[in-house]
Amino acid sequence: MTHQLRLFFIALQFFTRLPIPRWVGFEPSWLNHASRYFPLVGVVVGAIGALVYLVAAHWLPAPVAAVLSTAATIYLTGAFHEDGFADTCDGLGGGMTKERALEIMKDSRVGAYGAIGIVCMLGAKLALLASLPPASAMAALLLAHPLSRLAATSLIWQMEYARAEGKAKPLAVRMSDREFGIAAVTVLLPALGLLACGLLDLAAIVAALVASLVATCWLARKFTRRLQGYTGDCLGAVQQLAEVAVYIAVLATLGRGVLA
Question: Roughly what angle, to the nearest 10 degrees, separates helices 177-196 and 38-59?
Fold first, then answer.
């Protein structure tokens, strides 16, 4: 149990700015095994984002609450996933070969494709969250963050790493089915909690799962064709697109009158 807690803290340290206990320590091999807890990190990030939204929406209009909530999650994660999304846009947009695409993605500078992509991505998040009723927006945050990280984790489970070396190389060892099952459970539990509390109904949760799956499969296919695998930036891109896909699904379900 102590080692499992250590793995969770390793995941939390890798993907957020949150401090962890000193006794945790670090070994590169632990990071691969910690991937089972990436969605649980999403639960933490989503909960903080929802809390910020709750407090802000009590005093301020919904669009402002959406901005503050999104800013809080970006600060909490150090824009880690957004940076990966921007790099992926640059690489796939400007690289005609695998080698050139990977070279562009490794460049720390943001190009036109990355800038346009991140503006569109952030704009979509803000517009979607601001369009939801406060309770639904908070529920969407609580579902989208762990589910989108499960989507990113599925690449580690099913795909090969595209680089010989890289920041995400310690993650590149494929997850076992058992490890992915643990990751899936950490998404299932909050989803069931939202369902039990009446914050989201079954139709919204199923729609979110389907939307996340479609977004993930689309990007995974593109990565396989263009890069013959994934990189750390690709994981960030999947997380971002899957997160937005969940918001779209929840809003679309609400728009059909399925949600209260």
Answer: 20
Residue type (1 letter), 119: V
Q: Phi first, then psi: what are they for 174, rounded to 5°?
A: -60, 140
Q: Is the pLDDT reported for residue 4 higher than 80?
A: yes
d(CA 225, CA 239): 19
| Domain boundary assignment for the chain | 37-164+171-251
Are residues 104 and 91 in contact, defined by beta-carbon separation less than 8 angstroms?
yes
- State the DSSP code for 163: S
Residues 6+ away with beta carbon under 8 Å from 241: 85, 121, 215, 216, 219
Are 253 and 131 in contact, with CB atoms under 8 Å apart?
no
> Which two structure tokens, joined as six digits, stand for 247?
């918001």
Q: How far apart are CA 198 and CA 207, in angstroms?
A: 16
The terminus-to-terminus CA distance of the chain in angstroms comes to: 40
The string over 79-108, giving b where at least 16 C-beta atoms fall within 10 Å of a residue's C-beta and e elsewhere, is: ebbbbbbbbbbbbbebbeeeeebbebbeee
Task: Look at residue 61 and give its three-state secondary structure.
Answer: coil
Residue 41: per-residue pLDDT: 97
Nearest residue to 173 (alpha-carbon basis) of 184, 149, 153, 157: 157
pTM higher than 0.90 for the full model?
yes
